[in-house]
């Protein structure tokens, strides 16, 4: 425990001197930390929130992949996976990433984020490595809330459509949700036939329990019983999302 306290103190001082914050609410708030493993998870959870904001900005600054603001304003839910990795060689491959899910609340504001994971195993001739920032816009927030009961496989009963890009996406602001989910990606690397269909979405209970300091990590508890924004990282993420919506 002495080593853990020293590690926390040193890290807090480093971030404070840099003008940044790492932990929930403030840089020195380690209320949810009891073990070194908790410390690592709390760090990674907050990093996931920060990187999700950066991923959204990467997509919105890329004219060819930019999301129409009207789609953001119409969506009831969103998932962001920063730098999701897809790799394959020969006849086997896989995809994985950790990200955040949020829903639009009754008053129209965005909720606190819920940490989620995406995984996929694939077969068939393929080759390449790709890192992608992925944004999924949901027509109905109930699809996200259903993660409490079961994992979601994209494309299996839930329609996933690649969002319009380039000139087509910016020729009109009158976009309507005609699919369950619209997906947008900003990718680096080469991958033949890269697709998020077949990806499996699941809740990351350990990360959520550590981030919010609660044992019952049902999604609705986090969305409804924690004040948003929960900390500075969440505040920045929500502000960025609001700036890109209409």
Explain this structure to me?
- This protein has helices spanning 2-17, 36-60, 69-74, 142-145, 166-170, 205-212, 219-225, 232-244, and strands at 77-103, 114-138, 152-153, 160-162, 181-191, 200-203.
- 34% of the residues lie in helices and 29% in strands.
- The chain has one domain (52-244).
- Strands 1, 2, 3, 4, 5 and 6 form a six-stranded mixed β-sheet that branches.
- Mean pLDDT is 75; it is low at 1-24, 89-93 and 121-127.
- It is globular.
- The chain is built from eight helices and six strands, in the order H-H-H-E-E-H-E-E-H-E-E-H-H-H.
- By secondary structure, the chain is of the alpha+beta class.
Lay out the secondary structure:
Layout (H helix, E strand, L loop, with lengths): L1 H16 L18 H25 L8 H6 L2 E27 L10 E25 L3 H4 L6 E2 L6 E3 L3 H5 L10 E11 L8 E4 L1 H8 L6 H7 L6 H13 L2
Parallel strand pairs: 4-5
Antiparallel strand pairs: 1-2, 2-5, 2-6, 3-6
In what range is the share of β-strand residues? 25-35%
Question: Termini separation (Å)?
Answer: 49 Å
Q: What is the typical, i.e. mean, pLDDT?
A: 75
Output the radius of gyration: 18 Å
**Secondary structure category:** alpha+beta
SSE order: HHHEEHEEHEEHHH
Whole-number count of domains: 1
Q: How many helical elements?
A: 8
Can you tag this structure with a few keywords?
globular; single chain; alpha+beta; 246 residues; six-stranded mixed beta sheet
